[in-house]
Write a structure and sequence with these properties.
The complex is a heterodimer of chains A (195) and B (575). Chain A has 195 residues and is an all-alpha fold. Helix content of chain A is 78%, strand content 0%. Chain A has helices at residues 10-39, 44-47, 52-77, 81-111, 120-151, 163-192. In chain A, α3 runs antiparallel to α6 (163-192), α4 (81-111) runs antiparallel to α5 (120-151) and α5 runs antiparallel to α6 (163-192). Chain A is elongated, with a radius of gyration of 19 Å. Chain A starts with 9 loop residues before the first helix and ends with a helix. In chain A, 34% of the residues are buried. Chain B is an all-alpha fold and 575 residues long. Chain B contains 16 helices and two strands. In chain B, strands 1-2 form a two-stranded antiparallel ribbon. In chain B, α3 runs parallel beside α12 (391-421). Chain B is globular. Classes of the chains: A mainly alpha (195), B mainly alpha (575). Chain A binds chain B through residues 1-5, 7, 10, 13-14, 17-18, 20-22, 24-25, 27-29, 32, 35-36, 39-40, 116-117, 119-120, 122-124, 126-127, 131, and chain B through 5, 7-8, 11, 114-115, 179, 182-184, 186-187, 190-196, 217-218, 220-222, 224-226, 228-229, 232-233, 236-240, 245-248, 250-251, 254-255, 258.
């Protein structure tokens, strides 16, 4: 890298671009969800099976995981490796909790015969939340790798890899924000308006 | 000018360097060098160009005579679908990326892309995406619902064969490849420019690639989302596009064209960049109105997202929607028109050299303007209603894709071939190729405007013997064969020039930008040192400075004193 262009490191720009293009991807899925709601109309008895309160609690877990990741990053900057490991573990735990909640909800819905191939609502719902769940899972894999490196003592801010955590964090926060929008559209909005 | 910048090595060691050149093919497959990857992109493009062209010739044979039965309707549907899909996703895209990953680092004075391995990943995703698409022929039938693959024709109850599944998976895979390559190009352009090369001094080709990469990042997710939904529909019986069970066929059209219209600009902006270089060098003048050329690209990129529904005028979206998209479509003609005038003004008063590269650039101006005008005609809703789904559309799309994208890419090929290979691409035979190709191209597609106005529908495998249909179609077929023959000539010219072409030297065109400061072909390490960039024609400035003060051993005086980065074929072996 040449001296004149005091830009951010390559990784940071890269992940921001990836996040941007992923945002467009989720925008398309969310628009498709809304389009389907108005075009075909969702069956109220299917929509009513969504559990706002339980999912809301799991949503809080995901939001909390963004804050624990921020704390982990701060520990890394201060070279407190124990704090880094602790906060990272908690982040992973919260992320996994969210996925667990999503899995439980899926099972409940499928038992209530809301399925991917059952109705327009099922298709839209499982595609949108499923792609989001996949992104949470990918985030967990990335963070686990960093955690593993930290436990092996092979990770600190001096060895160039330092930007890996803050890069992964940008992705993780993005996944978090996407969920807030998805939650608002899929769970909260039907409470106020007829989707 | 005294200050020389040392061009840094890439940050990370290359994983492929353990392989030496006497391992032949393995060296190419394992390579992460941006130049080798660029050449492989171009070869992938050429391979699919020959296949896609062959499909087109089969179709033209079928259409040569009325009520012909050379191809049945099933085969014809598969052939026109594969032709369109191949030409757009596996010819034009890889060619654009090939020139981009080869020349962007060279033109900004860098030694590598920002992420060399990601670069290779993008190439192989594109290539295997194409192979997967073509595997459908073996798996029970190619996709047959057109390159835009309209719902509900793309659903299981209309297309039972696996073709559409291969279409979706092939495009999804190559689409991810395109996205990662664009990310890579943007990071490279933002972070690896040589000292002094501010964004307003970027070569215009690099500018266009930068704008284009952002456009691609914004547009491709829409296609990928649509393809993912289509796969869910077909594989797991979801209900997105299946009108029979509550889905919406229109949703596919919206998602596809929100991608599809920016896509046509994605395919034309880099050729615009190539032409902006070619017009300067072969007119011996700097570009006229650099800020306008650069800014109009940004305008195109932004407007590109506001015009998609002009592909859907016949759907019945209502007059307010149609009027909005009609107006926005006329609006987007303006920044493109601005560029055409910039290029004309660049040529005006210049000392024009009619090399093959310049000939293609000039022909581009004429052919692309024809395509642009027939496009503006479509933005007028009643005309669109009259002409939609006729051969007029076929003529229009080929005037912008061949007359625009392909002419621009061929101009780039003749311009940069000496840099990539060290040999000149035979200019005399090249002129033969140029004229045969241009005559064949116009012979094929000019008459199709008339066919469209006579009402001949596209995508129908044959037609009745109505007055003028037969003769116009026959002319079109004859033109297609002329074009096909000229492409064979091009392959022959490339082969012969590689074997016994004239040595090019490092700077055969007396050019302006930094890629010509490297050796031809560039060594594995493009540059050792470069002076700080002060103007928009950095290599020209280097040559001027060298002429004023010729210092012994000055690495910048390429004309009289071969730079010490000069490399021979042995150097590759030594790497």
């Amino acid at each position: 890298m040449t001296t004149m262009h005091n830009n951010q490191p390559d990784n940071k720009i890269m992940i921001k671009l990836v996040v941007g293009t992923e945002a467009m991807f989720f925008l398309c899925l969310i628009m498709a969800f809304i389009y389907m709601a108005y075009h075909s109309g969702f069956e109220p008895h299917e929509l009513n099976q969504l559990d706002l309160r339980t999912t809301g609690i799991y949503t809080l877990a995901l939001i909390a995981s963004s804050f624990t990741l921020l704390l982990a990053d701060r520990c890394l900057k201060k070279e407190k490796m124990r704090g880094l490991k602790g906060w990272l573990c908690l982040t992973l735990l919260l992320g996994a909790t969210f996925l667990f909640g999503q899995g439980k909800e899926y099972i409940r819905l499928i038992r209530g015969s809301v399925t991917l191939n059952g109705s327009v609502f099922g298709s839209s719902f499982f595609t949108l939340t499923g792609f989001h769940g996949l992104h949470v899972f990918i985030g967990l894999v990335i963070l686990s790798i960093i955690l593993l490196l930290a436990f092996l003592g092979d990770y600190d801010k001096t060895v160039g890899r330092g930007s890996a955590l803050s890069t992964a964090a940008i992705y993780w926060h993005f996944v978090d924000i996407v969920w807030i929008v998805v939650f608002a559209v899929v769970y909260v909005l039907p409470e106020f308006t007829r989707l | 000018m005294e200050e020389l910048v040392t061009i840094p090595e890439p940050d990370r060691p290359f994983p492929g360097l353990g392989v030496s050149s006497n391992q032949g093919l393995l060296q190419w497959i394992s390579s992460v060098d941006h130049k080798m990857i660029g050449i492989m992109y171009l070869l992938v493009s050429l391979l699919f160009f020959l296949i896609g062209g062959l499909l087109a010739l089969f179709m033209r044979v079928q259409l040569a005579l009325p009520l012909n039965h050379f191809l049945g309707p099933e085969a014809y549907n598969q052939f026109f679908t594969m032709h369109g899909t191949t030409m757009i996703f596996f010819v034009a895209m890889p060619a654009v990326f090939g020139f981009s990953v080869y020349f962007v680092p060279l033109m900004i004075g860098a030694n590598e892309m920002a992420f060399p391995r990601l670069n290779a990943f993008g190439l192989w995703l594109t290539f295997f995406g194409g192979l997967l698409l073509y595997f459908s022929f073996l798996a029970g039938g190619a996709p047959d619902a057109g390159w835009f693959n309209y719902a509900p024709l793309n659903e299981k109850n209309y297309s039972i064969g696996p073709g559409i599944d291969y279409y979706a998976m092939g495009l999804l895979i190559s689409g991810i490849g395109s996205v990662v390559t664009s990310v890579n190009l943007i990071v490279t352009i933002l972070n690896y420019r040589v000292k002094g090369m501010a964004l307003h001094k970027l070569p215009l080709f690099v500018w266009m690639v930068l704008v284009n990469s952002f456009l691609l990042l914004a547009a491709f997710p829409s296609l990928n989302a649509a393809l993912a939904m289509l796969l869910l529909d077909r594989q797991f019986n979801a209900h997105f596009f299946n009108t029979g069970s509550g889905g919406s066929a229109l949703l596919w059209q919206h998602l596809f064209w929100i991608f599809g219209h920016p896509e046509v600009y994605i395919l034309i902006l880099p050729p615009f960049g190539i032409l902006s270089e070619v017009f300067q060098v072969f007119s011996r003048k700097p570009i006229f109105g650099y800020p306008f050329v650069a800014a109009s690209s940004v305008a195109i990129a932004l407007l590109a997202f506001g015009v998609w529904a002009h592909h859907m005028f016949a759907v019945g979206l209502g007059n307010p929607v149609n009027t909005f998209f009609s107006a926005s479509s006329m609006l987007i003609g303006i920044p493109t028109g601005v560029k055409v005038f910039n290029w004309l003004a660049t040529m005006y008063g210049g000392k024009i050299r009619f090399s093959v590269s310049m000939l293609f650039a000039i022909a581009f101006l004429i052919e692309f303007t024809i395509g642009g005008l027939s496009g503006i005609a479509f933005s007028i809703v009643p005309i669109d209603w009259q002409l939609t789904d006729t051969y007029y559309v076929v003529a229009h799309i080929h005037y912008v894709f061949i007359g625009g994208t392909i002419f621009g890419l061929l101009s780039g090929l003749f311009y940069w071939f000496p840099k990539m290979t060290g040999k000149m691409l035979d200019e005399r035979a090249g002129k033969w190729f140029f004229w045969l190709f241009v005559i064949g191209f116009n012979g094929t597609f000019l008459v199709q405007h008339a066919l469209g106005m006579l009402g001949m529908p596209r995508r129908v495998y044959t037609y009745p013997a109505l007055p003028a249909y037969g003769i116009l179609n026959f002319i079109s077929t004859a033109g297609a064969f002329l074009m096909g023959g000229s492409v064979l000539l091009l392959v022959f010219i490339i082969r012969r020039s590689l074997k016994r072409g004239r040595e090019a030297g490092d700077d055969p065109w007396d050019a302006y930008t930094l890629e010509w400061a490297a050796a031809s072909p560039p060594a594995l390490k493009n540059f050792d040192t470069l002076p700080v960039v002060t103007g928009r024609r950095p290599f020209w400035d280097m040559k001027l400075a060298a002429r004023k003060r010729p210092l012994p051993g000055d690495p910048i005086n390429a004309a009289t004193n071969p730079p010490h980065t000069k490399k021979t074929g042995d150097d590759y072996d030594a790497q």
